[in-house]
Specification:
The complex is a heterodimer of chains A (850) and B (293).
Chain A (H helix, E strand, L loop, with lengths): L3 H12 L16 H13 L1 H17 L3 E3 L8 E3 L2 E9 H25 L4 H4 L6 H4 L21 E8 L5 E7 L6 H14 L8 E2 L3 H14 L9 E4 L8 H11 L2 E3 L4 E4 L2 E6 L2 E4 L2 E4 L22 H6 L4 E3 L12 H13 L10 E3 L3 H9 L4 E5 L9 E2 L5 H13 L4 E5 L5 E6 L2 E15 L5 E3 L4 E4 L15 E9 L13 H4 L8 H36 L7 H14 L9 H5 L2 H9 L7 H14 L6 H14 L13 H22 L4 H26 L5 H14 L3 H8 L5 H10 L7 H14 L11 H14 L3 H5 L8 H25 L5 E3 L11
Parallel strand pairs in A: 3-22, 7-8, 7-12, 12-13
Antiparallel strand pairs in A: 1-2, 4-5, 4-19, 6-22, 9-10, 10-11, 14-17, 15-16, 15-17, 18-19, 19-20, 19-21, 21-22
Helix pairs in contact in A: 1-2, 15-16, 15-19, 15-21, 15-22, 16-22, 16-23, 20-21, 22-23, 22-26, 22-29, 26-27, 27-29
Chain B lengths: L1 E17 L1 E6 L9 E11 L6 E4 L5 E7 L3 E14 L15 H10 L1 H7 L13 H8 L8 H15 L1 E2 L10 H7 L1 E2 L1 H14 L4 E8 L16 E9 L3 E5 L11 E7 L8 E6 L5 E11 L1
Classes of the chains: A alpha+beta (850), B alpha+beta (293).
GO biological process, one term (chain B): proteolysis
Keywords (chain B): Hydrolase, Protease
Protein name (chain B): Transglutaminase-like putative cysteine protease
Chain lengths: 850, 293
């Protein structure tokens, strides 16, 4: 039903156009699918759309959807940006596009097969030999690694844009490790959840068949018994720009997320270094570029790859998707030869043209390019060149002269392209629906039988800036959900169907690196919490003394503040610093907020968040919400006031509560597997060490009774045991009864004996390898620690040996701390691998250097 | 005819424990007209569970192995028996007389010839050139003179202008720096020669191998005194590949033993490896080229 308001909305959009737009057909009429969308948009109303947009921003942030920005000072990640207005393509047109990209994928597959084989294309002069031999994407060691002779290119992504004639053009071929399919999936999930009204009355194709096809392909690739196939999703790591997507897809597809150093080649076979020892790997889905895959045979300075990988591929012991070497066809010069290659292989024309491209290595083309330089874009044929794309029209006469000279000196290294022309599409910018340039990437997976299946949708990127196309995610572009709208009323619901055996993959194990990160998530979390908790106690004591002219001498304040400096490892801190002791706030604020200070809460939380991020596929959505809160409560944004004396207690409280919530949600939601055990173990180790530090520094010296009474109270508070203590003893606070409670009380989770028993139990449940029955070194250390606490005589410990010191107490606590530290060391050497990859030789000359 | 026993021993010492090692060797002499490798043996300590032999893209023989036991010293010894008989290949006196101009013309016009040689005419990972580098060879290559003669004269020029100085350069020293300093070792001279000759438009490849060295007169040859060697091979149309040794100003004969061909050193390093360790490493190489009667 076309209301007047909808007509107005369309008109006002049409009036803002100054280029060809997705909404209009060749005759200038609004396309039916867009009409339906505008009607839905109008029904929803602009105001509501803006509200939903805010919800989308919040949701993406909450889900932890990010895009890392290279070269930002602290590896900052940028929230993913999604425009609430989708990009629409009618089914009829999509079918055509599909045929075009499918043909393109089959063609590239054949090109790879030929060039890493007989090289008929070169021998028969279909392409010049330079396209292979001057191509830095042609890797000679890869000649014999392609095991599946029927399919060289399992995955492909095509970048497309609409030309002024209304046809879609292929702008770029992406063969190496195309990114974006995970973001496309997340965009769909968020849009359909938060903006269901937009799709009213429309039939939108699902994305899942593509992922289903991908999973089928992966399983078919693993040659041996598929029940036991072990699939790795290989990522360059948390610093990579699209790390979110790697973790997201790994967990969506059910594969183990790993980095190069998690894998090892032995006996020409790839293994995953896991908590349970080495596990054979059958298929690797890689998100690492070709040349970084194997430092032994490819780029030697790569620390991201797996040395020996190519050899394992040659022996047929592992399949890699896509196989390294496929970047050969990402070379820009190929775009110029696609029509003739297509005729050579298929005897037919390209269904979808590429953007017009000239390779300068032929005389005729070179002459044309030199004569038309001022309206072309000049690129190096080799993609991995530091030479930036040059827009001829932006150059001065002098610059054009030099560029001509440069091209003429090595013409085969250059290509020229026509400037890509794009269509505009409705976007929500600053509360208005306005036209912005957009381009689409779609994804294809081979069906293993010579054909390809394309995702029914894709990742649309649009420019936030008017009349300019800036879509690079690095530079802050927008993304859009992409709807393939069928007029067909039958809802095509294909669920991800997996063979029954795929679900019961018992081999899934925890890579050693993830294990280590989880351990440190536990440790960093507890470390930060221990400092915050004790800071809170100290602040209360300080305030009480200040404001109520304390009943006791302030002797205990010095002791507590010094103990605080020991606990937070922010020494010297308060220790013997009269000035700081007299006015503790400045130091406390610094230890809380100064991120560059070792031992500060801020630096501890930052380490915690880094560790959390490094194992981001471990967390479910509830946990991401809490992590978001923690992030907000420790790093001041422009909306929050700077931390000062008066808001510090509140900030402490909220951060403490959020971190406590994190532990709570972890313990409520995480499966009781090795991941959980390691996180708990890290937490317990840190907790025991922290609590012991405080007891030791409060009672190593003998003090007046009234001072010790204050200290006893602080320690009980620190152990969450004050309430229990009062119920039991009611009377005054005494050291003996306190020690009895914090060291030995079995019923309390924060007593040392309880924590050590739990630690010992956790260690026992971790994998033990062949010597299953025996205690390992970590368990032995934990048992010794537990035993020495169990044997403690609290009366004797409380009793000063000499007049001033409690040597026995110190000795016991120091001994236990040492044993617990040893547990950590033993765990590290047993479960976490620490060797670093190095190589011994040459560094290739950079492309542009001589 | 000459027969040799080659012993190439590489010892790595690591101050800290090495947990694993992956290695690729390119040490086995090639079988080709004029050279036969009668025997090749690898002794690796600690011993790997398997050594995989393979022919690489350029037809060289490589050996891959990996170690997974912790170790602090690794020794790899390659022992080969080779006989060389250059004269059996053809009449050494009948030198090719195709001129530079004719050679260039043929390379430009014969498409299939050019296709097969292109990767030895283009820049490669360690060899790129500019006008200054090419200018160094300009006077040696004259259009009307035979290409073979020009290449030989050019290697002579390198020999007379440059000093052989072992510790000046590493394998990563850029060609330009070598050209400016006028000193280096055989890899440097070979890379410089390749850059210049490719810059002049002719196909040339890198040769990795050994040279039998002769002790000073009246002295006994010292053990381990030889080294792996490198020189170049220029393609002369209508004739074939011709080797030149710019380091010694000679045309390689029976005393040169060929291990591998490549575009440059990066295609054929005798031994490369990835170590899993956090410490540094010390490397010692001993080569003996022992003539057999």
């Amino acid at each position: 039903m076309l209301t007047e308001a909808a007509v107005n909305l369309i008109h006002s959009y049409k009036n803002s156009l100054n280029s060809y737009d997705e909404v209009l057909d060749a005759k200038g009429q609004i396309k039916p699918v867009w009409l339906a969308l505008f009607v839905n948009l109008q029904k929803l109303g602009l105001e509501e759309l803006i509200i939903r947009n805010h919800e989308i921003i919040g949701k993406l942030k909450e889900n932890g959807v990010t895009y890392n920005v290279y070269e930002s000072p602290d590896g900052e990640s940028r929230p993913w940006r999604l425009d609430p207005i989708p990009f629409l393509i009618e089914q009829k047109e999509w079918t055509l596009i599909n045929r075009g990209v499918e043909q393109r994928a089959r063609l590239l597959d054949l090109i790879l097969k030929d060039l890493y084989g007989e090289q008929k294309l070169v021998k028969n002069a279909v392409i010049p030999a330079e396209l292979v031999f001057a191509n830095t994407g042609f890797f000679r060691p890869c000649m014999d690694i392609f095991q599946d002779k029927k399919n060289f290119l399992p995955l492909f992504a095509a970048d497309m844009a609409r030309g002024p004639d209304g046809r879609m053009w292929i702008v770029d071929n992406r063969t190496q490790a195309p990114s974006g399919s995970g973001y496309a999936l997340e965009n769909r999930l968020v849009t359909s959840k938060l903006l269901p009204e937009l799709a009213e009355g429309m039939h939108i194709n699902k994305l899942s068949p593509y992922f289903n096809g991908l999973q089928q392909r992966v399983l078919a690739m693993s040659e041996k018994g598929q029940e036991s196939s072990n699939v790795i999703y290989l990522t360059p790591g948390p610093k990579n720009e699209s790390y979110f997507e790697h973790a997201y897809l790994a967990s969506y597809l059910g594969y183990t997320l790993a980095q190069g150093e998690d894998l090892q080649v032995r006996n020409n076979t790839v293994y995953l270094k896991s908590l349970d020892g080495l596990q054979r790997v059958d298929v690797i889905l890689r998100r690492i570029d070709d040349d970084w895959c194997d430092p032994l045979e490819l780029r030697e300075d790569s620390r991201l790859g797996v040395p020996g990988l190519l050899q394992a591929m040659r022996m047929g012991n592992v399949r890699v998707m896509n196989p390294p070497g496929v970047s050969l066809v990402e070379n820009h010069a190929f775009l110029a030869f696609m029509p003739s290659i297509c005729r050579y292989f298929f005897g037919e024309d390209l269904i979808m043209p590429s953007v017009a491209t000239w390779w300068c290595g032929h005389e005729k083309e070179l002459k044309y390019v030199l004569a038309n330089l001022n309206r072309l874009i000049i690129k190096k044929a080799n993609r991995k060149s530091r030479f930036p794309s040059i827009y001829g029209r932006r150059l001065t006469e002098k610059e054009l002269f030099f560029l001509r000279k440069q091209i003429s000196a090595a013409p085969h290294e250059f290509v020229a392209q026509e400037e890509v022309s794009l269509s505009t599409t409705p976007s929500l910018i600053d509360g208005q629906i306005v036209p912005r340039y957009a381009a689409l990437r779609t994804f294809l997976v081979s069906d293993g039988a010579g054909g390809y299946r394309a995702m029914d949708g894709g990742l649309t990127r649009s420019s936030p800036i008017k009349d300019r196309f800036v879509v690079s995610n690095q530079k802050g572009g927008l993304s859009k959900d992409t709807w393939i709208v069928s007029d067909d009323s039958h809802t095509f619901q294909e669920k991800v169907v997996l063979p029954h055996w795929a679900a019961a993959n018992k081999l899934v194990s925890l890579p050693s690196r993830s294990a280590e990160n989880l351990f440190w998530v536990g440790r960093y979390c507890e470390r930060a919490m221990a400092v915050i908790k004790f800071m809170n106690i100290v602040i209360n004591v300080v305030n009480l003394d200040r404001n109520f002219a304390g009943i006791s001498k302030p002797g205990h304040i010095k002791i507590l503040l010094e103990a605080f400096s020991h606990l937070s490892a922010s020494l010297p801190g308060f220790v013997d610093d009269a000035e700081k002791l007299a006015d503790p706030y400045k130091e406390l604020l610094d230890v809380f907020a100064n991120r560059s200070r070792p031992g500060s809460v801020a630096s501890g939380v930052a380490s915690f968040l880094n560790a959390v991020n490094a194992v981001r596929n471990q967390w479910d959505i509830e946990i991401w919400r809490i992590i978001d809160l923690i992030e907000n409560s420790y790093s001041p944004t422009k909306d929050t006031l700077p931390i000062n004396k008066s808001n510090l207690p509140k900030r402490i409280d909220s951060l403490y509560n959020h971190m406590f919530t994190f532990l709570g949600v972890v313990s409520e939601t995480m499966p009781r597997d090795k991941s959980y055990l390691l996180l708990e173990t890290g937490k317990l180790i840190e907790r025991v060490l922290g609590k012991l530090t405080i007891i030791r520094h409060c009672f190593s010296e003998v003090n007046d009774d009234n001072v010790e009474e204050e200290l006893v109270e602080a320690v009980l508070l620190n152990h969450h045991q004050l309430v229990q203590y009062r119920q039991l003893y009611k009377s005054r606070l005494g050291l003996v009864t306190m020690l009895d409670m914090v060291l030995l009380e079995k019923s309390h989770p924060f007593s040392i004996v309880n924590m050590l028993a739990e630690l010992k139990d956790n260690l026992h449940r971790l994998p033990h390898g062949v010597e299953n029955e025996r205690l390992n070194a970590a368990e032995k250390a934990a048992s010794k620690a537990l035993l020495s606490i169990q044997l403690a005589e609290v009366m004797a410990l409380a009793d000063p040996n000499s007049k001033d010191d409690r040597l026995d107490l110190c000795q016991l606590l120091d001994g236990v701390s040492e044993l617990v530290t040893q547990v950590s060391v033993e765990l590290t050497s047993q479960y976490f691998s620490h060797s670093v990859m190095q190589n011994s030789f040459i560094k290739p000359i950079d492309d542009e250097e001589i | 005819m000459k027969r040799y026993k080659l012993v190439h021993k590489t010892i790595y010492e690591y101050p800290s424990l090495v947990m694993g090692y992956q290695s690729l060797l390119c040490l086995a002499p090639r079988n080709m007209p004029g050279q036969v490798c009668d025997d090749f043996e690898l002794a690796i300590d600690p011993a790997p569970s398997e050594i995989v032999e393979r022919k690489d893209y350029f037809g060289n023989t490589t050996h891959y192995f990996s170690l997974h036991t912790t170790h602090q010293e690794l020794s790899v010894t390659a022992i080969s028996l080779v006989h060389r008989d250059n004269e059996s290949v053809g009449d050494a006196q009948a030198l090719p007389d195709i001129t530079c101009e004719e050679a260039r013309k043929q390379l430009a016009q014969d498409r299939s010839l050019r296709m097969g040689l292109l990767e030895f005419m283009l820049p490669s990972p360690m060899v790129r050139w500019d006008d200054e580098i090419v200018a160094f060879a300009q006077d040696c290559f004259q259009d009307q003179l035979p290409l073979y003669e020009c290449a030989k004269r050019f290697c002579q020029k390198i020999f007379s202008v440059f000093d052989f100085v072992p510790d000046f350069s590493t394998i990563n020293t850029p060609i330009k720096e070598v050209l400016a300093a006028k000193k280096g070792v055989c890899q440097d001279f070979s890379h410089l020669a390749i850059a210049c000759i490719r810059g002049m438009g002719f196909p040339v490849r890198y040769v990795s191998g050994y040279l039998e060295t002769l002790p000073p007169p009246g002295k006994e040859k010292l053990q381990g005194s030889d080294a792996s060697h490198a020189w170049i091979s220029v393609f002369i149309p209508d004739f074939g590949w011709c080797d030149f040794d710019p380091t010694n100003n000679m045309v390689p004969g029976d005393r040169h033993i060929i291990t591998a061909y490549g575009r440059d050193y990066s295609d054929v390093p005798p031994m490369k490896g990835i170590i899993f360790s956090s410490g540094k490493q010390k490397l010692k190489v001993e080569v003996d080229v022992i003539p057999l009667e």
